[in-house]
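Why should sequence recovery work at all? Because a backbone constrains its sequence more than one might expect. Tight turns favour small or flexible residues, buried strands favour hydrophobic ones, and helices have their own preferences. The token representation captures these environments compactly. In the example below, the structure is given first.
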């Protein structure tokens, strides 16, 4: 990774060999697709399982929004879906589905296995966090974790 200054003048990390934002995003996407099989284990081990506490604490904090069946919830950069699962635990049966979106197909594939059997519904979408079609204001809850505008 190298540090670069983007058009807006802010600094960020760019993968080696990336010539522009598109090639940087492709390199990061390929990296997440590659590490998907070990992502959860690494997250749990490297954080000493604090990640599990973070997911549940964050979802619990937003329980009032999550309990509203009409609330639209988008989990962008959802990865393998741990946050999505935590959010789903607070959704009532019959509520609008939580939209779980990530640009790494392999990460979403791992997440899809977790969502089977969840009491609330979930809708998976492959998309980049920097290219979200609906306006953020359309969502009652919009957790954007592990995201950066240029990479995810």
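From this structural description, the recovered sequence reads:
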């Amino acid at each position: 990774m190298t540090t670069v200054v983007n058009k807006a003048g802010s600094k960020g990390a760019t993968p080696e060999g990336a010539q522009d934002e598109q090639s940087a995003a492709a390199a990061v996407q390929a990296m997440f697709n590659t590490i998907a099989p070990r992502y959860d284990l690494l997250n749990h081990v490297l954080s000493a399982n604090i990640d599990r506490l973070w997911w549940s604490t964050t979802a619990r904090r937003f329980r009032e929004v999550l309990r509203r069946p009409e609330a639209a919830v988008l989990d962008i950069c959802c990865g393998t879906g741990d946050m999505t699962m935590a959010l789903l635990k607070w959704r009532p049966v019959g509520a609008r589905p939580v939209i779980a979106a990530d640009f790494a197909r392999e990460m979403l594939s791992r997440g899809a296995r977790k969502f089977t059997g969840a009491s609330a519904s979930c809708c998976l979408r492959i998309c980049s966090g920097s290219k979200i079609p609906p306006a953020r204001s359309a969502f009652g809850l919009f957790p954007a974790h592990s995201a950066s505008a240029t990479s995810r």
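A few observations help interpret the result. The CA atoms of residues 129 and 148 lie 8 Å apart.
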